[in-house]
Task: inverse folding
């Protein structure tokens, strides 16, 4: 059994963010080798941002543990605390958006895990969390994107939806993280179970599956749909070479990193989902 307490949930959340950050190589993304396509942030700023958010991960989990209303009301409570956490992140990074997307996902997951562990389950499975998150966020795309009020500055996600009708992370959470469950989680769990590969290999290889299948709104906001297609096709090509599990595929990943840096492409949405994948795996498999 893996009875989860808020402190454990928060610890696993922080570990997941730091593990994703440290995984190397990651095309166009910050890793231990370089800052990818980013010129305004680096490895150390990302570490600092993640560390600041750890305090709020604990609070999200405690909100879930102590909550007695319905799932939709729990989401509202998490959203309010999320605004405070976001302000703390921006203060720590001097206004740089390091983890806004990840914070949205992780806050919801922490609260869901806290609620389920206390109210229903002694073991919290990935499926349980994702199903409960669907209840928490039902209708979010309609309320926040389809019926958005065009007042003030749009968020990146809102701007992308307005132009392309791609729901981004809101669509991902409302549907219970389908790209994580269908593509990333199975391969990450399989590779970890085999125990033959380093964490770098497991994470970088799993990232390729996300890049090949996700319409990354971070890429879409800064470029166009043709660039998203290029990212997907590039990842598929690398996977056909064996991905990070072969020398040829791994060399292709390093080459793709340089190409993405030159083109200013950073699949940050996929990076966030990679961290989500490991967080959900850790919650299900912690002892």
Result:
């Amino acid at each position: 059994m893996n009875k989860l307490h808020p402190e454990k949930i928060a610890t696993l959340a922080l570990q997941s963010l730091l593990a994703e950050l440290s995984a190397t190589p990651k095309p166009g993304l910050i890793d231990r080798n370089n800052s990818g396509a980013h010129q305004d942030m680096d490895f150390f700023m990302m570490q600092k941002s993640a560390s600041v958010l750890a305090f709020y991960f604990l609070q999200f989990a405690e909100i879930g543990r102590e909550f007695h209303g319905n799932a939709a009301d729990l989401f509202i409570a998490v959203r309010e605390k999320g605004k405070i956490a976001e302000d703390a992140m921006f203060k720590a990074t001097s206004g740089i958006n390091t983890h806004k997307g990840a914070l949205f996902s992780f806050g919801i997951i922490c609260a869901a895990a806290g609620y389920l562990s206390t109210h229903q389950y002694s073991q919290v499975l990935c499926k349980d969390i994702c199903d409960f998150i669907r209840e928490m966020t039902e209708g979010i795309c309609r309320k926040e994107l389809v019926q958005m009020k065009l007042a003030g500055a749009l968020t990146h996600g809102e701007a992308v939806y307005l132009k392309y009708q791609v729901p981004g992370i809101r669509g991902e959470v409302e549907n219970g993280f389908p790209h994580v469950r269908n593509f990333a989680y199975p391969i990450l769990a399989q590779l970890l179970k085999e125990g033959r590969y380093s964490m770098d290999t497991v994470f970088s290889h799993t990232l390729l599956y996300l890049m090949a299948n996700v319409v990354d709104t971070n890429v879409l906001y800064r470029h166009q749909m043709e660039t998203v297609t290029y990212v997907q096709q590039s990842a598929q090509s690398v996977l056909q070479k064996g991905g990070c599990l072969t020398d040829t595929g791994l060399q292709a990943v390093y080459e793709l990193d340089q190409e993405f840096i030159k083109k200013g492409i950073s699949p940050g949405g996929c990076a966030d989902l990679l961290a989500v994948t490991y967080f959900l795996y850790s919650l299900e498999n912690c002892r």
Summary: The mean pLDDT is 94.
